[in-house]
Amino acid sequence: MKSFVQAFFAMALMLTGWLALPSAALADKAPECMQSDTRSLTPERLQEWWDKRSPEQQKYVRDLPCDERYIPMVCIFLFNPDLKGCTNNGVAESRANKECQAKGHDILSEEMLACKNNYKKTFKYPFS
User: Fold this and answer.
1) What string of DSSP letters covers 5-50?
2) So what's the pLDDT on residue 23?
3) Integer Cα distance of 18 and 118 in angstroms
4) How far apart (Å, rounded) are the C-alpha atoms in residues 116 and 120?
5) Could you tell me if 111 and 101 are in contact, meaning their C-beta atoms sit under 8 angstroms apart?
6) How many whole angstroms separate alpha carbon 7 and alpha carbon 25?
7) Nearest Cα to 59, choosing from 92, 95, 93, 84?
8) Are 85 and 71 in contact (CB under 8 A)?
9) What Cα–Cα distance (Å) separates residue 76 from each residue in 54, 81, 82?
10) Which residues, 6 or more positions from 91, have their beta carbon under 8 angstroms from its beta carbon?
11) Residue 79 contacts residue 94 (beta carbons within 8 Å)
């Protein structure tokens, strides 16, 4: 009985300490690579923005590589109701552009358009 009481009080102390932590310490930390090079937020404002995101929104940002994290953030900013579709299409477009530019196609050329269309035909969306 004595060990049960000790365990109960130990658990109560841990719970009390956990509840006493500031809410920022309990929050999910905003991932890296979310700042613009030309326009940045303070770490506090960035965390505030991150904390307002839904778990779905956070997943799409966090699960992409750094150079593509802006894509779901743009979809969120535009209030696109199909966040998954918007993100998938944005990633497909971004990767197709990189692939076809690396092949030397001019940005607005017919060759670029054909290359991007071919790339997208076999592209596997990151969020299915």
Assistant:
1) HHHHHHHHHHHHHHHHS-HHHHSPPPPSS-S-SSS---HHHHHHHH
2) 44
3) 54
4) 6
5) no
6) 26
7) 84
8) no
9) 10, 9, 10
10) 64, 68, 71, 125, 126
11) no
| Token reading at 11 | 């658990």
Task: Tell me the average pLDDT across 108-120.
Answer: 97
The two structure tokens encoding residue 105: 């196609």
Q: Residue 78 has which token pair?
A: 């535009």
For the chain, the straight-line distance linking the first and the last C-alpha, in angstroms and rounded, comes to: 53
d(CA 23, CA 62): 21
Q: How far apart are CA 94 and CA 19, in angstroms?
A: 43
- pLDDT value at residue 27: 54
d(CA 21, CA 27): 11
Question: pTM for this structure?
Answer: 0.74
Q: At what angle do helices 83-102 and 110-122 cross, to 10 degrees?
A: 130
pLDDT of residue 71 exceeding 60: yes
> What token pair was written down for 17?
């300490």
**Please, which pLDDT band fits residue 86 given cuts at 50, 70 and 90?**
very high
Residue 116 corresponds to which amino acid?
K
